[in-house]
Request: fold
Amino acid sequence: MSETDGGDKLKKGKKALNSYATISSLILQLVALIVLGGWGGKELDRWLHLSFPLFTLLFILVTACLGFYYLVRTMLKK
Reply:
């Protein structure tokens, strides 16, 4: 085995680790965005005294769509 083989394996390992870190970061951001949207909608529904959780559902749907859009856009760049 030559030195270049070891260097190539190290580069592949670092690249894989960077990919996992990027994906996990994006998923965490997606979940946080959806949770914050749900919380904001719930608070708005409570403040407006709505019996049906209109803004909760709306904010969850909008933040989920935005989050997935950001996720796909970021993954296509890489």
